[in-house]
Amino acid sequence: MILTSKAPFFAVAVLLSMAFSVIPAKAASEHGTAAEATALVKKAKAVIAANGREKAFAEISRKDGPFVDRDLYVVAYDNKGTCLAHGGNAKLIGQDLSDVQDVDGVFYVKERIEKAAKNPSFWQDYKFTNPVSKKIEPKSVYCETSG
Predict the structure, then answer these.
(1) What is the CATH number of the domain that holds 78?
(2) For residue 119, is it within any domain?
(3) CA-to-CA distance for 1 and 20, rounded, in angstroms?
(4) Is residue 3 part of a domain?
């Protein structure tokens, strides 16, 4: 969770877990790396600090903006699970996603909130339906709280 003076929230950079696998160079260039995901969250936090939440969240939510890179995008949630910004799906902004489950029944946003209460940064793995291929794929997210 990225904690601010107004309301707590956290930013997440999402990438497919297969980016960590040994894959051909051409395929690897289609996927972000763990280092790139981490850097993207840090960049989002810096923009929020410099420009304020409203302006930064609008920028984070632009599909053609600087917070979307291949399969990487930034998402921000408050500490109750409400989506505040989403680089992958703007339709989710404003929605309470705390009860969303993956195919294995994992409440991954709730789990994120619980982890964020105890850790300033962490990785989380879960399964997600790829919006392009419609296949169930492993996903990893890098999360940071504000402070």
Answers:
(1) 3.30.450
(2) yes
(3) 24
(4) no
Can you tell me the distance from the alpha carbon of 31 to that of 20, in angstroms, rounded to the nearest whole number?
A: 9
**Phi (first) and psi of residue 22, to 5 degrees:** -80, 110
* Contact of 88 with 75, CB cutoff 8 Å: yes
Does 1 map to a domain? Answer: no
> What is the 3-class SS of 46-60, one letter each residue?
HHHHHHCHHHHHHHH
Among the residues of 29-127, which ranges form H helices? 34-51, 53-60, 108-118
Q: How far apart are CA 123 and CA 110, in angstroms?
A: 14
Q: Quick one: tokens of 126?
A: 């879960």
Helices (H) and strands (E) in the chain, counts: 4, 6
SS3 124: strand
Q: Do the domain assignments include residue 2? A: no
pLDDT digits (tens, 9 = 90+) for 8-57: 555 666 554 333 333 344 445 788 899 999 999 999 999 999 999 999 99
Structurally, the chain folds into a number of domains equal to 1
DSSP structure class, residue 82: B
Domain that holds residue 53: 9-145
Q: What is the pLDDT of residues 75-112, one digit of tens each?
A: 998 888 999 999 999 999 999 999 999 999 999 999 99
